[in-house]
Specification:
By secondary structure, this protein is an alpha+beta fold. Helices cover about 15% and strands about 35% of the residues. A hairpin with a 5-residue loop joins strand 24 and strand 25. It is elongated.
Length: about 500
Amino acid sequence: MSQDHISAEARSKKFGAAEDGGIIRCDACPVLCRIRPGRSGACSRYANQDGVLVRTDPALALAHVVDSGGAVVPFADAEWDGKLLDPSRAFITGIGSGTTYPDYKPAPFIVGSEHAGVDTVTVVTEGMFSYCGVKVKIDTDRHLGPETAAVRAKGEQIGHVTTAEYGSQMLSLGGVHHLTGGSKKEGVVTCEALLKLCEGEAVELTIDGGHSVIVQAGQAPIVDGVPERRMRVGCGSAAVGIFAQQWQGHVDEVIVVDDHITGVLTEHQAGKVLSMRPAGIRVRGRRSTPGRYFQVARPGMGWGGTDITDPLAIIESIDPKIAWPGLRLLMTSTTGEDALWCVLDEDLKPQPAAMPDAVRQVVDRIGENCEPSLCTVLFMAGAGGSLRAGVTENPVLLTRAVASGDVRVTMGGAPVYLWPGGGITIMADVLRMPRGSFGHVPTPALVAPIEFTLPRDLYARLGGHMGDIVPVETLLRGLGDGLRIQGWDAANPWPFAR
């Protein structure tokens, strides 16, 4: 196959005749832009170059350097002599490849290579995902908003608050109903917010009945203008159990304030095992099991994710038959960011006092054991039948082979989590994907790379487009300036590894 053939077929679509004025119609997505010479379409991903519809971004190949400290030589900076980029160490990603729309076409790149003696095929494309969204994990105890509450960007609902996880608030954003099921503005704003989040940019969100939060992958969330610092070491009960022995002898009672499970040391099994004297201090809320209390306060921005700013407010009673003057009481949050030391006076009322160094060291250790508060953005999408048709003429066979693990799926070379069940539903950490992985089309939908890697003989059995396989060496030569090279992310598994 010639270099000219690769350039034309892999990177562009030639039209028999342009319209008046040299205008051509782009059919790379359902919008069908009419593009004038020298201009690009609404997505900026395709342009009219001398009557040829071309992909404006270069294709991205990832170069795997085996030797530590080995350099990656950019292919485009020199005439390729077959040595600058070892084809066996190159992985062609879907970034910049183009799509299969209007769905009858094979994938833009179907790359043949050999790895560890196995003839391998990697099918490379960009998917247009209307059925897509992001799952956002926000490491904070702060109450961002009630579960199922609407999450908004620029006033438009783009998702909702979903089930909180241990030490994190979770958001589900995007999805086909927000992209296509609401107003045009809702779809546009949703697409814009998803694209920014997937590209590692900051997005300000507001939550109905809750607070505002600025979310950015890999960065601390900013809640109502205040950056979060710590993710909890555990719930109140867990904190009591973890640090009980370190407190013994220095305190008479510890209450760890938590929106979910507040812990009371001397009632807790940890205190019982350590033979700690009962303190007679009862906190508000519903007692679950000894030393564990639910609903001591309402959710909020205060101590331990409650609405409490004065921790003494959660004390319901102090039993004069059990408590004693001079009783040493520590109240702390689940992150150690808030802490109060008190001593009971003659009337058994807690009086704030200077915290002893030994107690302060344990409170500081709570903070030391809290991981930094971060935002995590996972892109989630379903690979539809049209995308799969670009891989094989019988798409259900691909679905089954992916489910069985015989086909490896990556996004921009990054590993994905494959959901069990029907279809090909995947999630990928956007920070493990190369920058510039995502685009959009005005339908609206996100565009993202996806690659399927499998043995060549299996590809044949799946009904793959065998006549469109191009050797990786030929593809690298043919792409020329339409190729850019980026070093492999060492944190990601090499797709060809067994």
